[in-house]
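To: structure subgroup
Subject: Chain for Friday's discussion

All,

I'm putting the inputs and outputs inline so they're searchable in the archive.
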Amino acid sequence: MLFNKSEVKASLKSDARYVSILRDPTSLLYSAYTYFRWRERFNYSSFEDFVIRTKSTKQIDPLIISFKNLMMFDFGLHPKNYEDDAIVDSKIAEIESTFDLIMIRDGEYFKQSLILLKNLMHWTVVDVAVVAINKMMSSAPKPVFSKSLTHHLLEANQADYKLYRKFLTIFKEKVKKFGAEKMKKELEELNYTTNKLANFCIAGTKPGSRNTTVYILSKAGEDNCYCRLLVASEKDLTRQLRQRYNKKRKKEVCRIRGYL
């Protein structure tokens, strides 16, 4: 979904919280390149070939797909404005004024993001205990970024890098304000709960399509709707949410606390 503030606001209650998530632009672009098989679909010889060739070419259809500045595209910035600093800055300011929390996907920041989300929404630790979906298998080839490739990536995705740096700084400030000891304690609780959930719900893993890991539910997990949601693909989860939103799906109460 491309973010449109007025459309989203019209669909939500006035007290809704706005949350999104960012990822290092280089890591995100490479992940999209491999996951969506752009090499095969568009006949690129390599990731570097893809970056160089798309850096100066026009979008195939700016309303459907963007090959650069993927996050700014999702936030509603039209590709024709990627290199307009004033418009980019205005969009970033709009995001800052709209969103209550911008989470960070990378490394240790992700779990810290879950803790900030839990506290923002007044949830419990079980509500933010997650397992990684579409995680690349450890046997998948790791990318090597040359200085030349890094230069092209920075040049082609300036809007995304500006966005990421801005909200990484804001995120670090939020974590500092939250408090180091409090964060440490809540991270320990999150790790403990996540491990217990995984042990209860998941029996193992197997290779999936596109070099990703697929979870195999335990017998108890198969019979528990919470566990099924825990490992659901984004497509399946989106479908269920749409059905519930349109009242075409019976509301199912998923409980896990009694099993932990």
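Points worth raising on Friday:
The chain has a mean pLDDT of 88.
The longest helix spans residues 180-201.

D.
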